[in-house]
Write a structure and sequence with these properties.
Layout lengths: L1 H16 L14 H11 L5 H5 L10 H7 L6 H32 L16 H11 L9 H5 L1
């Protein structure tokens, strides 16, 4: 989730200046369609119809709105900035994946204890946090109330 928010914030600057209103039509700018359109913009494609034609899935039904949202003044300078921003986003995404892989490797030996996410309201991240904070040795808690406190 944090990465999606970062994506939106980083990409807003070039979209505003270039008058590209893609986010009005595309819910995930960094999905397959959005990435394809940004890659085409970077590769010097400026025809809004051609760019809208890169839409995939249900987005294909919005080509008219896409064409309108892609009509702007995207320049080579915007392409340069967008390239740098996408590299930064990709690097952060890779870092997050590496950290998640490390967490998964560290949590793997706890096997059954990792089943905490089966408790209603406890997701995988919360289960990992509980294991990290509490551990698996419940003998140090004389009662369930001691654990809960």
């Amino acid at each position: 989730m944090a990465v999606s928010h970062l994506h939106s914030n980083i990409s807003a600057s070039w979209r505003t200046d270039a008058l590209i209103k893609l986010s009005v039509v595309v819910s995930d700018l960094f999905g397959v369609s959005g990435r394809a359109m940004m890659a085409a913009l970077i590769a010097a494609e400026r025809d809004p119809g051609v760019l809208a034609g890169l839409a995939r899935g249900t987005l294909r039904s919005k080509t008219g709105r896409l064409t309108e949202s892609l009509t702007g003044r995207f320049t080579d300078h915007h392409a340069f900035l967008l390239t740098r921003m996408l590299h930064r986003i990709d690097a952060i995404t890779a870092d997050i994946a590496a950290v998640q892989d490390r967490i998964d490797a560290q949590i793997a030996p706890f096997g059954q204890a990792a089943r905490l996410d089966e408790i209603p309201g406890v997701g995988a991240t919360a289960a990992q946090l509980i294991l990290a904070e509490v551990g698996t040795d419940m003998s140090r808690f004389p009662t369930p109330a001691h654990l809960a406190s």
